[in-house]
Amino acid sequence: MDLFEYQGKQFFAEYGMPVSPGKIAFTTDEAVSAAEELGTPVMVKAQVHTGGRGKAGGVKFAADIDAVREHASKILGLDIKGHVVGRVWIEKASDIQEEYYASFTLDRSAKKHLGMLSKEGGVEIEAVAETNPEAIAKIWVDPVDGLSREACEEWVSQAHLPEEAVQGTIEILMKLYVAYTEGDADLVEINPLILTPQGNVHVLDAKVTLDGNSQFRHEDYAQYDQTQTRDERETAAHAKGLQYVGLDGSVGVIANGAGLAMSTVDVINQVGGQPANFLDIGGGANADVMAGALEVINNDPNVKAIFINIFGGITRGEEVANGIIEAMKRVDISSPIVIRLDGTNADEGRAILEPNLSDKLLMEDTMLDAAKKAVELVS
Predict the structure, then answer these.
(1) Catalytic site residue 189?
(2) 314 Cβ contact partners less than 8 Å away, ≥ 6 residues apart
(3) What parts of the chain have a pLDDT lower than 50?
(4) CB within 8 A of 368, min separation 6: which ones?
(5) Closest CA to 305 of 263, 264, 353, 343
(6) Cβ neighbour number for residue 56 with a 10 Å cutoff
(7) Is 153 a catalytic site residue?
(8) Which of 22, 157, 282, 367 sits CB 3.0–4.6 Å from 91 for a disulfide?
(9) Contact in structure between 363 and 306 (CB atoms under 8 Å)
């Protein structure tokens, strides 16, 4: 789950990191009221789940209330990379002496947490990595051992920060690691982490991605799930408990397992088609699950054919077949369906499907052949 900037700052504040006071606003009048309460000057910042806000005109300095009104009215409703701004964060403006970068994420290849720190903050870290990789100090942390203060001090020394910023940075990084691990985050990023003229180190921006599967440990994370950016298809799929990502193609995809779903998307591209979605129904392929999946895909006007790709493991082939047939009775399908069924009891499943095959329900033996057929039906 991606958090808005203001949510990320609230998340960091819970772990003791210094952030600027601010208030969220959904209207221009609310933005003005927030600025009056905070006191000018303030920053007016668009809240969207994408980068490039500044370049798009979504981050503005307001020296007085009139400027707040002007900027808020222009930013609310602004389209930033396909994300329409529906809320702005009004934050007390900060004096900045220097800008740094800090983050933690998982390095899967090393099976360790990766921390990155750079004195070149305020710009995209990818650009720094490309033009001046030596400016990024990295640390790999064993999840069992955790981040010791000694290791953190050595890490900060490698970043060559000015002496006045060292202790404050160490304190924030130790807290950032705790937030990352205890908060079940996939990514925590501060860019920029600033040094003020008074010598204080301070969080000025926050990017946080939380592991959605950890909600059972964090009841308050439900609030973040409600503010996720989803299109109509994704919203409908989420309501049915389906793992769905909308794409721009015309071949609908239903598969059991994320790996198989990704492979299905790939093979559709391989044979010259374009997938309309990624949809993982997980380990269950009963009638209720299949009907929900078909309903979501059927409501996408761009879908011209549906590819159901099932490899039975725990789920048996005859259960899948019966689920598909029953689901088709419940949902008025407007596009032809191509099925590939393999794995446990696949022969039994195919035997159940066989009498029901038609120009609207087709079956192929292999994933490649099924993908070719689905793409053929679209063209």
Answers:
(1) yes
(2) 283, 344
(3) none
(4) 267, 271
(5) 264
(6) 18
(7) no
(8) 22
(9) no
314: its two tokens: 């725990």
**Which amino acid, one-letter code, is at 379?**
S
pLDDT in tens, 283-292: 666 678 888 8
Is residue 95 helix, strand or coil?
coil
Q: Cβ atoms within 10 A of the Cβ of 213, count?
A: 9
Domains and CATH numbers, the chain: 21-92 (3.30.1490.20), 98-223 (3.30.470.20), 232-378 (3.40.50.261)
Helix axes 258-270, 367-378, angle to 10 degrees: 60
Most distant pair of Cα atoms in the chain: their distance: 79
Burial class, 108, CB count within 10 angstroms (exposed 0-12 / middle 13-18 / buried 19+): exposed
Cα-atom radius of gyration of the chain, to the nearest Å? 25
Q: What six digits make up the tokens of 145?
A: 């051992």
pLDDT of residue 171: 98
Catalytic residue of the set 189, 295, 318, 319: 189
Enclosing H/E stretch for 126: helix 125-131
Q: Which amino acid is at 335?
A: S
| Model confidence, pTM | 0.73
Using CB atoms within 10 A of its CB, is residue 92 exposed (0-12), middle (13-18) or buried (19+)? middle
Burial of 330 (0-12, 13-18, 19+ CB in 10 A): middle
Residue 331, classified by CB atoms within 10 Å of its CB into exposed (0-12), middle (13-18) or buried (19+), is middle
Q: State both tokens at 74.
A: 């222009």
Helix, strand and coil content of the chain, in percent to the nearest 5, comes to: 40, 25, 35
**pLDDT computed for residue 327 by the predictor:** 85
Q: Which among 326, 312, 317, 309 has a CA at the least distance from the CA of 252?
A: 309
Can you tell me the distance from the alpha carbon of 369 to that of 340, in angstroms, rounded to the nearest whole number?
A: 9
